[in-house]
Structures are given as structure tokens and as C-alpha cells.
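User: We ran a pulldown and think these components assemble together. Before we commit to crystallization trials, I'd like a predicted model of the whole complex to look at. Sequences follow.
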Amino acid sequence: MNNFTFYSPTYFVFGKGTENTAGQCVKRFGGSKVLIHYGGGSVVRSGLLDRVKASLIKEDISFIELGGVKPNPRSGLVYQGIDLCKNEGVDFILAVGGGSTIDSAKAIAAGVKYDGDFWDFYEGKPIEAALPVGTILTIAAAGSEGSGDSVITKEEGMLKRGAGGEALRPVFSILNPELTQTLPAYQTAAGAADIMAHVFERYFTNTEEVEITDRLCEAVLLTMIKEVPRVIADPNNYEARANIMWAGMVAHNNLVGVGREQDWASHGIEHELSALYDVAHGAGLAVIFPAWMTYVYKHNINRFAQIATRVWGCQMNFENPEVTALEGIDRLKKFFTSIGMPISFKELGAKEEDIPAMVEKIGLGQGGTMGGFVKLNSKDVEQIYRLAL
Amino acid sequence: MNNFTFYSPTYFVFGKGTENTAGQCVKRFGGSKVLIHYGGGSVVRSGLLDRVKASLIKEDISFIELGGVKPNPRSGLVYQGIDLCKNEGVDFILAVGGGSTIDSAKAIAAGVKYDGDFWDFYEGKPIEAALPVGTILTIAAAGSEGSGDSVITKEEGMLKRGAGGEALRPVFSILNPELTQTLPAYQTAAGAADIMAHVFERYFTNTEEVEITDRLCEAVLLTMIKEVPRVIADPNNYEARANIMWAGMVAHNNLVGVGREQDWASHGIEHELSALYDVAHGAGLAVIFPAWMTYVYKHNINRFAQIATRVWGCQMNFENPEVTALEGIDRLKKFFTSIGMPISFKELGAKEEDIPAMVEKIGLGQGGTMGGFVKLNSKDVEQIYRLAL
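Assistant: Here's a predicted model for the assembly, 778 residues in total across the polymer chains.
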């Protein structure tokens, strides 16, 4: 096990009706002038925004609003948000929505405390300070409610980049599974694929002897395998929604990743897909991950056999573990298909002829590589895209 | 799944040599005058105390010391510590040791901020404020490094009682598995039993549909079953020590307990054993838990069959799940025996004739009960003690 630090200071409020505690939560963490940041119509139409406002009013907290966050959130709105907060003296940002809204709120929070261009952080500059961010989550997917990460797309060139740091961890996150019950099946499934992908990125490692982290990863995956088909069959299944929503947080606050080298190549490879075609990040991951696994599994057949037996319930083939390893990958593909996720470029609507441009945009150049488990160069990335056709 | 809040804001620093970051950690959390609180000779003899002091000196942090914490920590030393801190203007408490030292430090931290008798908190008064506490853990067991709980024994009547609250959560905890390598096998095994018991208290619940929490519980138990025999066989196995140490934190910061009713009868039943005979808490739990399980398993045979198959690898007997349930309990007993833990009064050195007095001291009286999974009255508790003979 490698040395590590783990810090997850977010206060989580979970369950039915918990959005009505938003005002108390903002107060607890010192907010007095709030920017409510959200996406589109559903937050308004469902009455959620009104309930949140009522909760703030009840605690005498003043607020302004900025809606309009899109999936794969854009830098343009972040600049708007930063100006708005600076002009209005906002001291707290409350994100009401999914990962895109939360990521956009985090970018604004960092930008308000910085005199330069917030995009600097997405080019690698460390984030030293940010306004406190609270969240009310409406989609189980990105895990941004418990992480210090944020991904923003710059309109100019549709450049999708991530930033992160302790200052970006939400001070509180309100998770009410009821709020996810109105999500279309496709979005629910894409969120589930995203959650599982966060575990895969941490599970495939060259660090040995991290049994506790392996087992925690497997706990999340086993939960997803049980619960996701239930919500696809019955969108109103509160219990299944609740298990998935909490699993989504656990999958990405890094508890299931500590003490080990992680991979993260597939996220980088996928980002070009969702940036180019504006598809759901989770759907892109459902396409990329099986291809990535097929390309790299020989690097550690036993690790792939382990996930196949422990998570997918495959019988171990002791004569030929490779058979088991491949069976696990096959089970993942069938699982994604069963919940309505694409597993190929064709199903996703991506095009073979765009592959060279996507490889180019990842920008590994001549000697560069990506990925901790297997170091991939541009040639490797191209082959993974082709395996996904 | 029940509504819940989860808050684990402790900053964890894990791995080899991490005690040398103590000074930086105290500084990060605002300490300037520190009470170093510890137990007996081993912290001094091993040179750990000197390394910690050197780390504080390096950051220009002043400190005083209070050693002498005993297992099942006593109120007398807590009173001493409170007076010392008040007289010397201490603003931060650094516990160097195991659960007893950390619990004693928490009691002092709460007492310093309170004008009355600190024992009030252990009689049920809510804790509203406490000095910040940091920890350097030397035994994987109590989970106090990541919890807001503290258990203290009042000398007068050897009354063992717990208190808890957010203010008692350590602001940082340093976990170096190397520090646990010199522990005798018996203490290592007792710590392991304590960790497993923290999971059992949360696993046996009447709340349905909490798959994610079940799976996280099982992840900790599976890790313990793999790693504990390895450290018993080879005390210097760093990797196994590391997995156990982190599992010990995960088992008790309540991540594996959220969203469900918990039990906690066995802890109460055990407390009388360790208070009366001054035995290791974990050893007492190894005696009580199999007896408790044998007494209550019929309340939910399927839940006991689930742990037997998922954790102990038993084959499910579909014709008669009770057989599987009982096999799981038997496997637990054999496991405890294999790591050198007692599973009976006899092995522990406890006496049958003391049972009535222990039952009396738990104080359930006429109509009182304890336990969330099965509500136990005094008669039930007595029978559980007798099952453990």
C-alpha cells in the first residue's frame, strides 16, 4: 500500500425531503449571500428551485440566481457567474443539479477568489482558495458532490479539461434520491456507467496488497449490479435509487482509491468523445471502458479474473484464468447493453473518421503517455478507439 | 434506507514515517500550545514520543505532556488533564496511542470547554464544544481516530460509559502501520476483534434495502479475514498491518453504518466484562458476539445466512437456510480461536457467579431493553452471558 492522505470533510444530508434543509446548511457553513446555480427547466418545473428558495428565505439568507448550465458545462457561463458574484458580493455558491452544475459552481467559486483567468486552473495552476460551495444533487453520476474535482469545456476549440483541489470540496451536499426519480432511463443508466467507471479507474492498479481498497471498490460495483436494473425496470423504486445515489458518492470521494496508483486513461479518452459529439459522459465511458479493458487485460490477467469472479460472479477457470478475465469483460458489456447503454461508436453515433482528430486533440504527441495501470501512447489510444467501433 | 447525515471531516495521513508530519498537522489546524497525551512506556521506549516532539519543535509549537493512560481509561486522569490544560492555556490535544489514549484525550478536550463536571457528558449531556484533538494511532482497534465517540471508566464503581458528538471528531489522525508492528499478538488480535465487532453492530439491522452499506460492511470483514491471520503469523507484515489499520478506521467512522438502525447491545454487554475484569475490550467482544448471535439469529435467519455466504464463503443451504446461518456463527468462533482470541468466559477468566452483578450493573431494570436489532431485556442479557460460559 502506498502512503496517502484522505480528506472528505463534506457534510452529507441524505434522504427524503432533505432539500428543505438547504437554508440551515448554508447558515451552518457561514453563507449570507448566495448564488443559486442551476441548469435548465426541470429544476424549475419540478418546484425544487422554489423549495430551495423557501428554505433560504426561512433562514433570512439572501440570494441571486444563475441558471443555464448545460451538460459538459461551458466556460462562458463560468465567466458570467464570476462577474455576477464579484459584483453582488456573493459569499456562498449553492449548486442545484447534477455534476455539470456542481462543476460549473466549483469553477465560479475558484474564479471569484482569483484575479486572473479562471481557465488557468484548468491548465494546471493549483487552486488555493475558493468560495464555499454547497450542493443539492439531482443526478447520481459524477460524484462531484463529494469530490474536489471539476471538469469544464472551453467553447473555443471545445477543450474539455479538469481541475481539482481541496478548496473545491463541497462543504455540504444534500442528496435526496426522490429528486432522481423523474430522470429518463437513458440518463439514469449513463449516470450508473459513470459511477462504475469511477471505480474501474481506481481498481486497475499496479500497486499490490491493497485488499481493503479492492474490497470497497467491489462493494460499490456489486451494489450497482443489483440496483441499476431495478431502477431501469421501475424508475420510482426509491430504495434502489437511494443505494445508487450513495454509491455514486462513495465511488468518487476517493475512499475506494486510496493507497494505490490509479489509471484514469479511459476518462481522458472519453472526454474527446463527449466534447466532440456532446454525448453523455457516462454513455461515452460505457463505450470506452470495455475497449480499454480488452486492450490492456493481458497486463494483469489475475486482476481481471479477480473482478470477474468477485464482482460478476464468474467461476474461476484455474486452468486458464484468461478465459475468466475475458468473461468478466463480456459480462460488463452485456450489463451496459441490458441497461440501455451503448458499447460501440456506432450505437453512440461517433464516427471512425474522427478518430485521428480525437487522438490528436488528446495531445500525447511523440513521447507522451496516459494512464497509470498501462501507459498508453497515441498509437495505443487510437487502437482503443478502433476496438470500440 | 433511512434518512441520515454523514460527516467525517478528519484529515487522515496514512503510511510509513507519517508521525513526522505531526507538527505540520497541528499547525494546519491552528494549534499553538499542545498537550501531548499518551499511555505507558512503549510510546517512550520506541522513540515515537521523541519523534513527535521533534516534529512539533520544528514548527515552533510549544507543548506539555501527560502520560499514564491505562486500557479502559479512567476518569481520574481526565480530571488531571482538564486542570492541566486550563492552567497552562493549552489549545490543542495530541493523543499518541491507541483507543484508550484517544478517548481520554477527547474527554479532556470536552472538559476544558465546560465549567461543570466532564462526567456529565458520559451521563448523556450533549457536548457542544471541545478543544481540537489530533491523533497518532499506535493500535488498530477502537476506530476512535475517525469517530466522535469516547468511552471512559469512572473509578468510583468502575462505571464504563460512552459519550459522543461532532465536536469530538479528531481534526487529523496520523496512521502509520509500522507503529503497530511491535504489538504483541494478543493485542493485535483483540484489536481485530474490536474492528470486526464495530461492523457487526451495524450489519445486524431491521432496516431493509441498504445494499451499499451491507456491501461496505462485508468489504471490511473480508479484508480482516484475509489480513489478520497474516499478521498473527508474521507481526512484521507491513502490508497486512496497513490493510487492517485502514479497515479499522472505515469500520467505525460510520460509513458502514449509515441509513440503517444499528444494534450495539453486544458492546453494552461487553463493557461490564472489561470493566469488571479489566480485560481487553476486543477479547470481551470475541466472547460476547458469538453468544449474542446464537441467541438472536432466529430473528432474521436470512441475514445470518447472507453474512455466512458473502463473508465466510459458506455454501447456501437453500433447503434449510438455518444451517447456513449457524455455520457462519461457527466460522466466526473458529476464526477468533485461530487468531488466539477467547470465545468463552472460561478462556477470558470471567466467572459465572458474577453474571447477576453484571446484569444488574447494565441497569435495564424492569421494563428496559437494549439493542436495535433485537430488543433485549435483563433476562435475555443474562442468557447471553450464560451462552458464553
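Strands of chain A lie at 4-14, 33-38, 62-66, 92-97, 133-137, 149-154, 159-164, 172-175. That may be worth checking against your pulldown data before setting up trials.

User: Thanks, that helps.
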